[in-house]
Design a protein that fits this description.
The structure is a homodimer of 303-residue chains. The first copy, chain A, is an alpha/beta fold and 303 residues long. Chain A is built from ten helices and 18 strands. Chain A has two domains: 255 residues, Ribonuclease Z/Hydroxyacylglutathione hydrolase-like (Metallo-beta-lactamase, Chain A), CATH 3.60.15.10; 41 residues, no CATH class. Chain A has a seven-stranded mixed β-sheet. Chain A has a seven-stranded mixed β-sheet with strand order 7-8-9-14-15-16-17, covered by helices on one side. Chain A has a two-stranded antiparallel sheet with strand order 10-13. In chain A, α9 runs parallel beside α10. The termini of chain A are close together. The interface between A and B is large, with 37 and 37 residues.
């Protein structure tokens, strides 16, 4: 039951040799997702051995270059490697024009179709679901329209105790109902309560991605209680004024969001290229929210 | 008198961990040029320690993604690092729309101006010159409009022999005329021939870039006699039919162009991602044109 996030880039607008710009690869129950797609993402996907040919859904938070400039190259590579499966892109509407215009010179006809699903930048919205997983977008507070994303498992079915299958001679027809919480009625009419037959399932896991954004109470509401929160911390508090001006967050603010939203674990990233060392980030975050990790390119997080 | 080419990417359409797509950084007499700008070029420039803030001229051969998808990211980085000097881009006209549309979301107003100089895809043309250097474009034979480039030094002035300056008491006013080839007339009216006063200058050096193109006689004409020729060799001869179909060249064809054009040295690149090892390229090229080198990312060529 894999739910794993690979940080492909934890830098901000100016990529460096050690930190690529934003992109994350997520394997959630064998659904392969990409969140943001900075320049060089296709190489990062190779470097960190992601199953990138299996990616069917790409989520683009906003149209700042360090979050989408690798998208056309990735689509081109999908095409050249023979992909035929459709791909779903979730992002600002204008992305469609950018992709079309840029691709026009070299791939008028891709081997696969792609659809752009427009994000809603004014309220939280369910943008993808299947039988096991759902993804919501929610507005962040940035200089331009920008969304965060929450990837979560759906509520799982109850686990039937194996010994009860034999004890009550449960049939293939009985099992789905019981897994959904129903009681069992034996051939003699006896009612066996669901609680005798099943155990609680594992609680559904969730991951939230917040980049780029200034500190915002509405983010706290949106990500409340997630297992793992990725929140940007472009600056340390010394540059709080610059963070505010550019609609970014400080390390302290990221930690405050995590604490107030009572998340399980915090990951911070989107570090300004000015920070070679990140010790100041540690110093700020630890007292506010001790269960955290500083992102680095290639870091894998188990949700 | 530096004339140095750094290969930033020698792969073709699908970049790999070992070969980036096309881009080259050229320092010619302290003019800093970039030819093509594939995705990830800004990182390659950092990796190979190019003086990338000094680049004032960018030449884009054509609008296949592996030759220009890093351009918008590079412009963005120039802006974020505080560049104010104008930049000149030489490429297909449509590049202007692509840059404008893509940048629109994040940098409506760059700190510097950029101009797109339209390439002529039907004939050879002088596209840049200053007092020491000139750059010509010339048509290549590819699936879409595509140009090669020749970067060359201008004819240098003659070298005055130092001992003659003292012997004839040459003044600051005399020297420029003599460097241009003029004779000297002494105060007593004696004519001193230029050949007594000067030595021949070094012959001007030249570098030609041909990617992407199929084999073409017109390329041979265009690059005749250059000191160093970079010619694409996407495939080996086993895949000659595929090369022809996709308007690319084989290793043998690249070598034939070099031999017929009587260039000084050949560099081949733009290798298809299918070739992990390049020994077959060696086998094909060596018998046809022995003075060659296979490109690799980071390779520096002295012209």
């Amino acid at each position: 039951m894999r739910f794993e996030v690979t940080i492909l880039g934890c830098g901000s607008a100016v990529p460096t040799l050690h930190r690529s710009a934003s992109a994350q690869y997520i394997n959630v129950l064998e659904r392969h997702l990409l969140i943001d797609c900075a320049e060089g993402t296709q190489i990062q996907l190779r470097k960190y051995k992601a199953k990138f040919q299996k990616i069917d859904h790409i989520f683009i938070s906003h149209l700042h270059g360090d979050h989408f400039l690798g998208l056309v190259g990735l689509l081109s590579t999908f095409h050249l490697l023979g992909r035929t499966r459709p791909i779903h892109i979730y992002g600002p509407e204008k992305l469609k024009d950018i992709i079309n215009l840029t691709l026009h010179g070299f791939h008028n006809n891709l081997n696969f179709t792609w659809n752009l699903h427009r994000l809603n930048f004014s309220k939280k919205e369910l943008i993808f679901e299947d039988n096991l997983v759902e993804v919501h977008s929610f507005p962040l507070k940035h200089r331009i329209d920008c969304c965060g994303f929450i990837i979560q498992e759906k509520e799982r079915e109850r686990n039937i105790r194996k010994e009860k299958i034999e004890e009550y001679d449960l049939t293939l027809a009985d099992i789905p109902k019981i897994k959904k919480g129903g009681d069992h009625i034996t051939t003699s009419g006896e009612v066996i309560s669901n609680s005798e037959l099943t155990d609680d399932p594992l609680p559904p896991r969730s991951y939230a991605y917040c980049s780029d954004t200034m500190y915002s109470e509405s983010t706290i509401d949106a990500v409340e209680g997630v297992n793992v929160l990725y929140h940007e911390a472009t600056f340390t508090s010394e540059l709080a004024a610059r963070a505010k001006k550019t609609y970014h967050s400080t390390a302290t603010q990221a930690a405050e969001v995590a604490a107030k939203a009572k998340v399980g674990k915090l990951v911070v990233g989107h570090f300004s290229a000015r920070y070679k060392q990140l010790t100041k980030f540690d110093e700020e975050i630890k007292p506010v929210f001790p269960d955290y990790v500083l992102a680095e390119d290639g870091l894998k997080l188990i949700v």
